[in-house]
Design brief:
The protein is α+β, with helices and mostly antiparallel strands. It has two domains: about 1-245, Aminohydrolase, N-terminal nucleophile (Ntn) domain (Glutamine Phosphoribosylpyrophosphate, subunit 1, domain 1); about 265-470, Rossmann fold (3-Layer(aba) Sandwich). Helix content is about 30%, strand content about 25%. It is built from 16 helices and 22 strands. The strands form five sheets. It has a seven-stranded antiparallel β-sheet, with helices on one face. α4 (about 110-120) packs across α5.
Length: about 475
């Protein structure tokens, strides 16, 4: 999962400062690297590197990023192993000069890369699938001769969407011509479209629009492309729409609670996730404690519904990153030790309902149960807002192999014993859909039913590749 922003300002002013500010608001979507590229209509200006936004961009960097069109990106890796080299955005010189960043994951990366290298003689310099998408787009556009036209851009996206198997919400600069945005045919990854008096914006979450004073227009539709030209004219076309299946994990875990995705408040959905869990609750507890930060809202909804007290029993060290999106298990283990510290008075001698958004690998849950036992908890009942995660994700969530998913080969009772909890109550898939308010969502990591064409052979190949990449993380 990553975060992106694309802005075109019609008043001619530089866009870099807005991009940096906006990226800070979606830093939670990626901590590995940060990058910005701008265009002054004659050339690109780029700065990207491994690290957080605040560490990558200096005041002098912002001043040097000239241009009224720009895209910014924060990344966490679900493919590749060289964090610095895989940083987004990427650009190519021909045709026209195109720069691109995206959020998502291309499941048939190896096949498409091989085709680009052997048939189109394009050499990729990274393992990042944004560079792959960029080269597919450039290759298709180069096949259409003649002067630039928006129709030719849209014509190029048809073959692109047929070739790419996976998820992508992408923003691209066509140098000297405008800003392009396009979303995969299933709408797996979010993309927001907004405007203000000085220009237009695309972003991963509405929180960016709120911060930068843009008005929300709508979500970009599945399979849609939108092009904003230098005069501010909006050109849009549905290129290849299929069944809309946005990723449920955006509401469960990834997005900020103050964002809205597909017209549904993340905060409200998380409240309802807690309320749905309360319908299945039959135990007596003294307090409901969330695992901060993502689970707070659901824990409040759950506590109110069961008539129990809500308490903050775990304090988060805000200078430690999100453990789920760290690229290697050893980093996650160390981070969990530093991340959370208990408040003894809220734990000792109490029966606790511990609310968490999900149990993926079990790293955090096992550590927390042990920690709460150490500080005198009488009982610990895990309450999980997401159903058991059993299958790898091909669409941009770092759930790469079945063997690292605790629910892939264990029953709920076996998971309970392994974690050392007194009980575990998982969300149901039906409850998840009711809370989100959509029946058609991507639940592939829960059910193994992928909205795009993913075979058992694909799963095995992907798992092998990702294991090899993780062993080489730079």
């Amino acid at each position: 999962m990553c975060g992106f922003i694309g802005i075109i300002k019609l008043n001619g002013k530089d866009v870099a400062e807005e991009l940096v500010t906006g990226l800070l608001s979606i830093q939670h979507r990626g901590q590995d690297s940060s990058g910005i590229i701008t265009s002054d209509r004659s050339r690109f200006h780029i700065k990207k590197n491994a690290g957080l936004v605040s560490n990558v961009f200096s005041r002098s960097d912002v001043k040097s990023l000239k241009g009224n069109v720009g895209i910014g990106h924060v990344r966490y890796s679900t493919i590749g192993f060289d964090i610095e080299n895989d940083s987004q955005p990427f650009f190519v010189n021909y045709p026209f000069g195109i720069a691109l960043a995206h959020n998502g994951n291309i499941a048939n990366y190896e096949e498409i890369r091989s085709s680009l290298e052997k048939e189109s003689h394009r050499q990729l310099t990274s393992r990042c699938d944004a560079e792959l998408i960029l080269n597919v787009l450039a290759d298709e556009m180069s096949r259409i001769s003649g002067e630039f036209s928006i129709g030719k851009v849209f014509d190029s996206l048809g073959p692109l969407m047929k070739k790419l198997n996976g998820s992508y919400s992408a923003v691209a600069i066509i140098n000297g011509h405008g800003l392009l945005a396009f979303r995969d045919p299933n709408g797996l990854r979010p993309m927001i479209f907004g405007k203000n008096d000085s220009g237009f914006i695309f972003a991963s979450e509405t929180v960016v629009l709120n911060l930068l004073d843009y008005t929300y227009i709508r979500d970009v539709k599945p399979g849609e492309a939108i092009f904003i030209d230098n005069n501010g004219n909006i050109h849009s076309k549905i290129i290849d729409a299929r069944e809309k299946t946005p990723c449920m994990f955006e509401w469960v875990y990834f997005a900020r609670p103050d964002s809205t995705i597909e017209g549904r408040s993340v905060y409200d959905v998380r409240l309802r996730l807690g309320e749905e869990l309360a319908k299945r609750w039959d135990k007596d507890v003294d307090v409901v404690i969330p695992v901060p930060d993502t689970s707070r809202t659901a824990a409040m909804g759950f506590a109110k519904a069961i008539g129990a007290e809500y308490r903050e029993g775990l304090i988060k060290n805000r200078y430690v990153g999100r453990t789920f999106i760290m690229p290697a298990q050893k980093k996650r283990d160390n981070a969990v030790k530093l991340k959370l510290n208990p408040i003894t008075s809220e734990i000792k001698g109490k029966k606790i309902a511990l609310v968490d958004d999900s149990i993926v690998r079990g790293t955090t849950s096992k550590r927390l149960v042990s920690l709460l036992r150490k500080y005198g908890a009488r009982e610990i009942h895990l309450v999980v807002t997401c159903p058991p995660i059993k299958y790898p994700c091909f669409y941009g969530i770092d759930i790469a192999t079945r063997k690292e998913l605790i629910a892939s080969d264990k029953s709920v009772e076996e998971i309970r014993k392994f974690l050392g909890a007194d009980s575990i109550t998982y969300q149901t898939i039906e409850g998840l859909k009711r809370a989100i308010g959509m029946n058609s969502i991507c639940t592939a990591c829960l059910t193994g039913n992928y909205p795009t064409n993913i075979s058992e052979t694909d799963i095995s190949r992907f798992e092998k590749i990702r294991e090899g990449e993780r062993s080489r993380v730079v």
